[in-house]
Amino acid sequence: MARYEARIEVTHLPGILDPQGVTVERALPALGYTNVSHVRIGKSIRLEVDAADEGTARAQVEEMCERLLANPVIEAYEIHLAEFAG
Amino acid sequence: MAPRVGVVVFPGTNCELDAAYALEHAGAEAVTLFHADTELKGVDGVIVPGGFAHGDYLRTGAIARFSPIMASVAEFAGRGGPVVGICNGFQVLCEAGLLPGALQKNAGLKFICRTVDLRVETTTTALTNALDAGAVLRIPINHFEGNYTCAPETLARLRDEDRIVVRYVDNPNGSVDSIAGVCSEGRNVVGLMPHPERAIEAVLGSADGAGMIASIVRAASVGVAS
C-alpha cells in the first residue's frame, strides 16, 4: 500500500461559457496587460489516497471525478497523480 | 381528501416555509421531508425548494443529491410521481440526473433578484397543467447560478420533445434558448429557476405563481400508479 497525492483541475468544457474567465480577461487590459487571451477559471482539488498501486489510485480518483468532483455536463477534469513524498 | 405534497429540507434550504404556505393556500397538505429521512411518508407529490443546500459547496446541488431522501425521490419520480424543483431544487434535480443539463453562473456574473416575465411553453407537465400555453406570468427570480446550459444534442432533444416548460421573455442570465425550466421525459419531473411560491397573492406583487402551484397540487391529486 502506498499513498498518492492527486491534484485535480476542474475547468469548463470547451464551448461552455466561463463568465469568471471572461470577466478577468476584460479586467487585465485595464492594468496594461493587453496581450492576454483565453483566460479560464476553474477549481483545483487536492487529495491523498491510499492504494495498492498508481493505476488503482488513478482509477479511483477518475471515478470520484465522474461521480462527484466534476459535473461532466459542463466541466472537464485533469488528474495529476504522484506518489506522496511525505 | 387534500393531496399531500412533500417539501424536502436540506441543511441550507430556505424556501421550505414559502413552499409549504403556497401548497396549503392551494388546498394541499404540506409534509416536511427531512434530508436524512429515507421515506416519503406516502406523499402524492414532492417539491424540492430553493436555498443553498449543503452550502452549495463544490457545486450547487452536488452534495444534496447524495442525501438519503434523494434516493426515495428518484424512485418516486421513476414511478411517475410529480416532482418539482424550484431554484436550488432545480439545481439539485439536475445534479441528481433527474433532469438534463446544468445551471452555471449568470452570464453577467451578478446575483439577480427581481420579477421577470415567464412564458408558459407547454401545459402537459406537473408544473403547468392548470395553465394556458403562451401565457406570460410575472414571477420573481433570485439566483446567482441560473444560467441553464446543456449539450447541443440535449437542447435539440428538449425542443423536439416539447420539454422546455417555461422560457424567459427577456433572458436575464444567459440561459441557452432563454430556458427557465425543463421537464423529464415522463413530464412528471420539472425544474425551474423562478419562484412561483413567492407569487401566489396580489399582496406579494404578483399572484401569477398560483397557477403553477395549483398545477403541482392537481398532478399530486391525480396520483401515481404504485
Walk me through what this model shows.
- The complex is a heterodimer of chains A (86) and B (226).
- By secondary structure, chain A is α+β, with helices and mostly antiparallel strands.
- In chain A, 29% of the residues lie in helices and 34% in strands.
- Chain A is built from 2 helices and 3 strands; from the N terminus they run βαβαβ.
- Chain A has helices spanning 19-27, 54-69, and strands at 2-12, 43-51, 75-83.
- A 3-stranded antiparallel β-sheet of chain A has the order 2-1-3, covered by helices on one side.
- Chain A is elongated, with a radius of gyration of 16 Å.
- The two termini of chain A are 14 Å apart.
- Chain B has one domain: Class I glutamine amidotransferase (GATase) domain (Rossmann fold, 3-Layer(aba) Sandwich), CATH 3.40.50.
- With 226 residues, chain B is α/β, with parallel strands linked by helices.
- Chain B contains 5 helices and 11 strands.
- In chain B, the strands form 2 sheets. Chain B has a 9-stranded mixed β-sheet with strand order 2-1-3-4-11-10-9-6-7, with helices on both faces.
- Helix content of chain B is 23%, strand content 25%.
- Classes of the chains: A alpha+beta (86), B alpha/beta (226).
- The interface between A and B is medium-sized, with 11 and 20 residues.
Summarize the structure.
The complex is a heterodimer of chains A (86) and B (226). Chain A is built from 2 helices and 3 strands. Chain A is α+β, with helices and mostly antiparallel strands.
